[in-house]
């Protein structure tokens, strides 16, 4: 696929409308909305499908995977309460769209993808757009222990349970956001590490993600 980084008035206008739609749907964090308004989501699509890029839908990116729905990206990002220079572990790089949103908010992102095709594609696209994340290929369900601890951890695929090993890679005061459920639907869960051995867990809305596949997963 040839990547064309052209952001013209049509795409900019569509992006503004998407931001307003997300606001109407309940996203309130202005910094998150600003990031959505900044990252050109059509850069993650083949030019043939640019007219789909600013609809609030997930879209196939090949290899049976999807670029997440903008609402889902905004929802998970809002829950992370990113502050500048937060060290963030993202599990499930996919297209890299979520990675860019985190970086727009000032995060230092460590992102891991298990599928080599997707990893190789995103590894090329993001630096071309000016986003220099730390990319890893492998099973993110075990986290990345060598770079722990993290201020925040986000899982962008549906897990059968909250992996204990991820909780241990959070800093005290850190936040994990992870969809947990069966193969069809998952509840969004946030876990805050309040002390060495104590965690506060909150269960939120229902979503539908592709499965998290790995050692601490399906
Ligand atoms: N947020 C991404 C975006 O905006 O494009 C979409 C992520 S997609 C819904 C989920 C990704 O998680 C897929 O690319 C899938 O291959 C990956 N994945 C699934 N299990 C994984 C694991 N154990 N470790 C790393 N990546 C995994």
Largest sheet: 7 strands, mixed
| Order of secondary-structure elements | HHEEHEHEHEEHEEE
Tell me the count of domains: 1
Instruction: Give me the CATH fold name.
Output: Rossmann fold
Descriptors:
6 helices, binds S-adenosylmethionine, alpha/beta, 7-stranded mixed beta sheet, two-stranded antiparallel sheet, 218 residues, 9 strands
Topology:
Blueprint: H1 9-24, H2 30-38, E1 59-62, E2 65-67, H3 70-80, E3 87-91, H4 97-104, E4 108-113, H5 116-129, E5 134-137, E6 150-155, H6 164-167, E7 170-181, E8 186-193, E9 199-207
Parallel strand pairs: 3-4, 3-6, 4-5, 6-7
Antiparallel strand pairs: 1-2, 7-8, 8-9
Bound molecules: S-adenosylmethionine.
The site of S-adenosylmethionine has 27 residues, from strand 2, helix 4 and strand 4.
Structure write-up:
A hairpin with a 5-residue loop joins strand 8 (186-193) and strand 9 (199-207). The strands form 2 sheets. This protein has a 7-stranded mixed beta sheet with strand order 5-4-3-6-7-8-9. Strands 1-2 form a two-stranded antiparallel ribbon. By secondary structure, it is of the alpha/beta class. The mean pLDDT is 95. It has helices at 9-24, 30-38, 70-80, 97-104, 116-129, 164-167; strands spanning 59-62, 65-67, 87-91, 108-113, 134-137, 150-155, 170-181, 186-193, 199-207. It binds S-adenosylmethionine. S-adenosylmethionine binds at residues 65-68, 73, 91-92, 94-95, 97-98, 112-115, 118, 139-141, 156-157, 209-210, 212-214, 217.
């Amino acid at each position: 696929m040839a990547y064309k980084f052209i952001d013209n008035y049509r795409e900019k206008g569509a992006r503004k409308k998407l931001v307003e739609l997300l606001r109407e749907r309940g996203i309130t964090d202005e910094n998150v909305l600003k990031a959505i308004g900044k990252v050109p989501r059509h850069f993650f699509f083949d030019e043939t499908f640019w007219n789909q890029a600013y609809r609030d839908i997930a879209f196939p990116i090949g290899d049976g995977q999807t670029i997440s729905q903008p609402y889902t990206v905004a929802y998970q990002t809002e829950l992370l309460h990113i502050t500048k220079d937060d060290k963030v572990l993202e599990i499930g790089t996919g297209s890299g769209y979520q990675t860019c949103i985190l970086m727009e908010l000032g995060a230092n992102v460590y992102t891991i993808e298990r599928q080599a095709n997707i990893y190789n594609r995103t590894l090329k696209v993001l630096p071309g757009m000016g986003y220099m994340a730390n990319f890893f290929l492998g099973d993110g369900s075990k986290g990345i222990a060598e770079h722990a601890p993290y201020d925040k951890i986000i899982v962008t695929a549906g897990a059968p349970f909250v992996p204990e090993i991820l909780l241990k890679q959070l800093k005290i005061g850190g936040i994990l956001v992870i969809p947990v459920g069966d193969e069809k639907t998952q509840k969004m869960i946030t876990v805050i590490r309040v002390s060495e051995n104590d965690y506060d867990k909150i269960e939120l809305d229902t979503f539908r993600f592709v499965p998290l596949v790995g050692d601490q997963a399906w």
